[in-house]
Amino acid sequence: MIISRTPFRISFFGGGTDYPAYYKEHGGEVLSSTIDKYCHIFVRPLPPYFDYHYRIRYTKMEYAKTLDDIEHPSVRECLRLMDLGHGVELLHSGDIPAMSGTGSSSAFTAGLLRALHHMKGQEIDKYELAEMAIHVEQDLIGEYVGSQDQVAAAYGGLNHIEFGGSDGIDINPLALQTHKLNELQDCLHFCFTGVSRESFRIAKSIIDNTRDRLTELKTMKEMVQEALSILKGPVENYDDFGRLLNESWQMKKTLSNKISSDHFDDIYDKALDCGALGGKLCGAGGGGFFLFYIPKENRERFDRDFCECFPVPIKLNTKGSHVISLG
Predict the structure, then answer these.
(1) What is the pLDDT of residues 301-312, one digit of tens each?
(2) How far apart are CA 241 and CA 146, in angstroms?
(3) What CA–CA distance (Å, rounded) separates 12 from 221?
(4) Rounded to whole angstroms, how far apart are CA atoms 311 and 302?
């Protein structure tokens, strides 16, 4: 039994500029971090005496005789790409709900590829894993996804990621001093709206609107550099990070009318009334998790008065997809 552990992520700034439709022409960049919530993939060879070759358990249970019979697109294409030559049993377990804006599909793909490489006795570095996961999702499956989630899953940590340069993708880890990292973590509030959604419809609308939103995307990309400057500066100015989140969220909502709704806008406004300086729906939006920035002096009031979403404690994680058990 091989078990891989792959972190989910939160994206702070630059989301939308990591779609190839944008960054291949204009360049893109994001600031994101993985968190201490994980996707676990369990795989082992399936003995040959069953009347099927693939036993796959996630939210559904699949028994498939051929790769073409597998319904789960990432499982099907990863297994096809890796060409194991034998049957496989696979089980998925996630710490937080899928379809919630935390890069869960890319964490699944990266984690599965990591486990399958171990099954074949092959090494794969972080960059290769990220590129292979991007290839599976964008090229083989044809999903409407960007390129930041796969990189976050493979590398882990707090990263400034640039897209579209001479190197294709450039990953720049942000090594904050411990007191700065603690300050940032203490001011973040992560909470679930109770609404899971399929992000591809939202992502498709963002991609379709790209040509009409170049000014907004350029501004959102520039906010990444502003955020980096804040985090590298004194912690006394970290509240500017929260205010910048608010500016970015207001601009992101203009990319598509599917990103938010009156219901989510009301939740966001209530959070601001309770002391948050800014925030966003994670990922493409449309549901899932909210991330808010709350100054320490407002935390008690926020925790007392904000009851619209289910709080989920998180810490920023530093380790990307890896194998935790070889049985």
Answers:
(1) 999 999 999 999
(2) 24
(3) 11
(4) 11
Residue 288 token pair: 């899932």
* Residue pointed to by tokens 């979403």: 309
Q: Which domain range does residue 165 map to?
A: 2-175+317-326
Indicate the residue type of 156. G
In this prediction, residues 244-269 reach a mean pLDDT of 94
Do 61 and 105 lie in one domain? The reply is yes
Phi, psi torsion values for 83, nearest 5 degrees: 50, 65
Give the confidence band of 202 by pLDDT, cuts at 50, 70, 90. confident
Strands (E), 148-277: 158-165, 168-173, 188-192
Helix axes 104-119, 73-82, angle to 10 degrees: 30
Task: Say yes or no: 194 and 77 in one domain.
Answer: no
> In 56-103, which ranges are continuous DSSP H helix?
73-82
CATH code for the domain in which residue 124 is found: 3.30.230.10
Number of Cα atoms under 13 Å in the Cβ half of residue 251: 22
In the chain, the number of structural domains is: 2
Q: Are 147 and 132 in contact (CB under 8 A)?
A: no
Dihedral of alpha carbons 16, 200, 147, 271, sign: positive
pLDDT tens sequence across 101-146: 999 999 999 999 999 999 999 999 999 999 999 999 999 999 989 9
> What is d(CA 136, CA 153) in angstroms, rounded to the nearest whole number?
14
Which residue is associated with the tokens 């963002």?
206
CA gap 28, 17 in Å, rounded: 5
What average pLDDT does the segment 211-224 reach? 94
pLDDT in tens, 135-194: 999 999 999 899 999 999 999 999 999 998 666 899 999 999 999 999 999 999 999 999
Residues with Cβ within 8 Å of residue 6, at least 6 apart in sequence: 38, 39, 40, 41, 107, 108, 110, 111, 114, 153, 320, 321, 322
